[in-house]
């Protein structure tokens, strides 16, 4: 069993840092973009700059000492000790100082500061200095050569570290393989605890407190090393500091949403159907393969980028947002994390370019108590046969690929639950009923039936009997997506109302937004949205950093859905009659907000999770 | 097939088109602090057109170089240009706050000329104007300085061997002009519909080159020739009225004694 630390990436070489400069932001960007090479490069750059400024500082000090000695020698009165030089700004490129500065024959810099007057020295020894020129060029060449050697050394140590890491991981795995009893023992211990839990509460969501543990039981895959980034030596930034890529993406998605989706929102809601051209364009924009690596045809972006995209879409239409959310954070993630290389190659390119995905866990008999599911799977000569019925399945009208949870061995209880990938064209698969809903009406929600659907062996997702772990793992992350859908909704409806009250609607001879009674409500609501967004992005960054985020995700979803419900209700009121009629988006956002408290774990279930984790922490 | 195209697309970072500009307290310029900025919309058209020229395959495009002069944040619009399809970019950092105002159109034209020469360009596509200053001068000055043909306010660009047909909308209708490369084209609103930068292309843009360059390296003297005396908000508009149709309009005008 690989210890958890191995999942973190010690990609950072131990260098001395100068904090608080722009360089830190470059590093932060690189980390947020999950690009270890860029992290390495940014770190190297910063270290180099820090080192260069150290050199300059050392030279300044040396120059000052020489000078003060000379002056002391000339003057009978002792000069006061020179004051310490202010910390050199690491951003201050030392070579600019060479360009501007004066040099001694030995190549050292004559400092330009009030305590060490170069002219004084020049007068006593005119040969001792001259304007930077030839010598400067020479110094540059020497320094460049030194830098090249340094770069090469660091590169080597970086690759050596990577090799070492791979070796250690292989050893750990070999050790685990060689000692199956120990592994089984560990698993059994956890299960015993799970069983006690289950008897106590009857709810599978309460097991989420074992998720940190289930990480070491490898529900968290050792996917590409870019999955988790070690941020232990990164200086903190505001939660809303987005990387350049994330900002560019937010801008592009927002533009797309406002120009392409916005004109169709009302029409799609009335028709209770998703416009197929929108789905097509989501694929074209790369929004359906946000985290899918480039080699499988995706955008290869990080988790927070997906959250940014979901939020931007929800500002305009929560229905389109949930289509994108379920597809990316549940379906793509399931295959990316738990699929074999073969199934990744088989499914991911389609999911990134043309096939919408659905996630089928809930059933008529199992909602919050998801693992009471009754859908059965049987082994056949060349694969499996699935029979049962799933309920409330998002995207099912548009989807071509369904991730289905079924029990392969009900005698084992939840340990029989196994995940499969089923194509829409499979014989026996059918959509039984399309639900008519209160909100997110353009997003399809259907009952889907599996009547002895036969599938091949390679349509098994991951391992038999591990479906419950996958579901827990995926929904833990997915919840952050729903939270982002809710903050996007809140922001969208707040902005819509704010524009109206502050620009359009006048009563009693003034804009209604000028009344203090309105202003304070708008301010309060915006503050709550900002608080919810902090929870959302903090959970996302924690997930990316490989930290435990289960409680954070639950809090984010709980609070974001509450804020969305409250703000969208107020927005209707702020707009008066205009908020109540079905012309604008206010009443739609209000209806849409309700779903946030229901799917991917109801608010009660989130509270249960949060409380369990807290209780564990505060129990002696 | 005609000569290989080496296109230069200058892009400018301006206050977002959806934002209502406000004059700063000192009355010296438009307030830019804390205001959303994006690529000048006409420049989006230029980038889009350059990429479409490549995609249409009527002319073979060797290289599309995006360039911007402005504060360090202009790197954002260059990334956008590269995410839309430009191959690489150059940034001339020039902070109006520190350097006593923006580069003037003539200085920009001189900078562009230097880049055309340094980077061996044979086609420059620019926006007909930037929506902040609305000077509408840079493209024309550049063509003059280079001694190249120019086709301004293009609403259609077609390649025909060595020569280029450009359709432009004028007061009386449409006008088609024909010129040989090398040339300068400025873009107008109906030229195309710029694409949204897709996610995979945003990721690819991260790996494309963005080179920094200075006025000194280009040997351009950007001394100011113009002095802004004062910037003031236009007088607030008196509330107008809405009419339903043409008859309503005529009635209203008659009522007001305008006709
Ligand atoms: C529009 C929509 C889309 C959906 N999309 C999908 C999808 O794509 N895939 C999928 O698998 N599912 C989907 N679902 C199902 C969704 O996840 C479930 O509806 C949700 O988990 C709640 O289950 P339930 O409806 O059975 O409610 P129930 O579990 O019956 O809950 C009813 C009430 O009891 C409370 N409750 C239940 N258990 C407890 C407890 N232990 N402690 C305290 N209170 C409790 C709940 O909080 C709730 O208030 C979707 C649902 C909707 C409405």
TrEMBL record, chain A:
List the pathway annotation. Amino-acid degradation; L-isoleucine degradation; Lipid metabolism; mitochondrial fatty acid beta-oxidation
Localisation: Mitochondrion matrix
Q: Which domain of life is it from?
A: Eukaryota
Q: Which UniProt keywords are given for this protein, alphabetically ordered?
A: Acetylation, FAD, Fatty acid metabolism, Flavoprotein, Lipid metabolism, Mitochondrion, Oxidoreductase, Phosphoprotein, Signal, Transit peptide
Question: A single GO molecular function, which one?
Answer: short-chain 2-methyl fatty acyl-CoA dehydrogenase activity
Per the UniProt entry, what are the Gene Ontology biological process annotations, in alphabetical order? carboxylic acid catabolic process; fatty acid metabolic process
Which intervals hold domain Acyl-CoA dehydrogenase/oxidase N-terminal? 243-354
One GO location term (cellular component): mitochondrial matrix
Which residues does the UniProt record annotate as the domain Acyl-CoA dehydrogenase/oxidase C-terminal?
465-612
Query: Which N-terminal stretch is annotated as signal sequence?
Result: 1-18
Q: Which CDD domains match?
A: SCAD_SBCAD
One Pfam match, given by its short name, reads Acyl-CoA_dh_M
Record-listed E.C. numbers: 1.3.8.5
The reactions it catalyses are: 2-methylbutanoyl-CoA + oxidized [electron-transfer flavoprotein] + H(+) = (2E)-2-methylbut-2-enoyl-CoA + reduced [electron-transfer flavoprotein]; (2R)-2-methylbutanoyl-CoA + oxidized [electron-transfer flavoprotein] + H(+) = ethylacryloyl-CoA + reduced [electron-transfer flavoprotein]; (2S)-2-methylbutanoyl-CoA + oxidized [electron-transfer flavoprotein] + H(+) = (2E)-2-methylbut-2-enoyl-CoA + reduced [electron-transfer flavoprotein]; hexanoyl-CoA + oxidized [electron-transfer flavoprotein] + H(+) = (2E)-hexenoyl-CoA + reduced [electron-transfer flavoprotein]
Among Gene3D superfamilies, the record links this protein to:
Acyl-CoA dehydrogenase/oxidase, N-terminal domain (1.10.540.10), Butyryl-CoA Dehydrogenase, subunit A, domain 2 (2.40.110.10), Butyryl-CoA Dehydrogenase, subunit A, domain 3 (1.20.140.10)
As cofactor, the record names: FAD
Q: What class of enzyme is it?
A: oxidoreductase
Q: Which residues form the Acyl-CoA oxidase/dehydrogenase middle domain?
A: 358-453
What's this protein's family per the entry?
Belongs to the acyl-CoA dehydrogenase family.
Assembly with partners or alone: Homotetramer.
The protein depicted here goes by the name: Short/branched chain specific acyl-CoA dehydrogenase, mitochondrial
Organism, by scientific name, is Gomphillus americanus
Q: What is the lineage of its organism?
A: Eukaryota, Fungi, Dikarya, Ascomycota, Pezizomycotina
TrEMBL record, chain B:
- Keyword Hydrolase attributed: no
Entry-linked SMART domains: ETF
Subcellular locations according to the entry: Mitochondrion matrix
Q: Where's the Electron transfer flavoprotein alpha/beta-subunit N-terminal domain?
A: 27-222
Keyword annotations from UniProtKB, A to Z: Electron transport, Mitochondrion, Transport
Q: Name one GO cellular component term.
A: mitochondrial matrix
What this protein needs as a cofactor is:
AMP; FAD
Q: Which Pfam families match?
A: ETF
The record's free-text note on cofactor binding = Binds 1 AMP per subunit. Binds 1 FAD per dimer.
Q: What protein am I looking at?
A: Probable electron transfer flavoprotein subunit beta
According to its UniProt entry, this protein's organism is Gomphillus americanus
